Amino acid sequence: MSLTESAVEASAQLLERLGLPGLFALSAAELLLAPIPGEAVMALAGFLAVRGAFELHEVVLVGSLGNLVGSLVEYLLGLYLARPALLRLGKYLLVSERDLELAEAFFRSKGGFAAVLFGRMVPGVRSVISFPAGIARMNPLSFALATIAGSLPWNASFAYLGYLLGERWQEVLAYSSLIDAAGILALSAAAIYLLARLRASGRSLSGTRTRGA
């Protein structure tokens, strides 16, 4: 049995035993880099809604609130642990304080809000986007709003899919590898885009300073 299958089996047992509190815990843990496929958890919860264990809107709401809590924990880890570490070790990692300033400018702009919002709907990205947002000291309220706005459609899609599939909800797992592959591609594209934006911002700011001098 693979790690993913084991995680899904354990998640199913927890969900059937604890109900909505279990769904909340799993949704939070999923965004803390736990080996829990969020799409399978939501599909299972959607199937249990068919059985009458939950209401479908409860599944989406509780799952999204769990995502918010998990993402806020990641945000704080990025802010209070990863950021100081980068400031101390940045010269060894080729990350300067100037790079952090550019990242801050990006995540405090509309681009940062969009990055978190759409990142929540992309596998792979959705579990890590909180770290750079915390490192860059993104506005906490904007971060929370973007997280909720992105988590709701993701959770609703897979919960409804599980609701439609019923007993066949595990078919979602057959596409997990494809979903993960898409996530890796999206993460790579997002990293390239962010790097390009940061470099463009750096050149623009440098040019402004030169003209001002």
From TrEMBL:
Membrane is among the record's keywords: yes
Q: Which InterPro entries match?
A: DedA_domain, VTT_dom
**Location(s), subcellular:** Cell membrane
Q: Name one GO cellular component term.
A: plasma membrane
Q: Which residues cross the membrane?
A: 23-47, 59-82, 143-166, 172-196
Q: Name one Pfam family in it.
A: VTT_dom
Q: How does it sit in the membrane?
A: Multi-pass membrane protein
**Keyword line:** Cell membrane, Membrane, Transmembrane, Transmembrane helix
**Record-annotated VTT domain positions:** 36-163
Q: Does the keyword Cell membrane apply?
A: yes
| Protein name according to UniProt | DedA family protein
What species was this sequence derived from? Answer: Thermofilum pendens
Q: What is the lineage of its organism?
A: Archaea, Thermoproteota, Thermoprotei, Thermofilales, Thermofilaceae
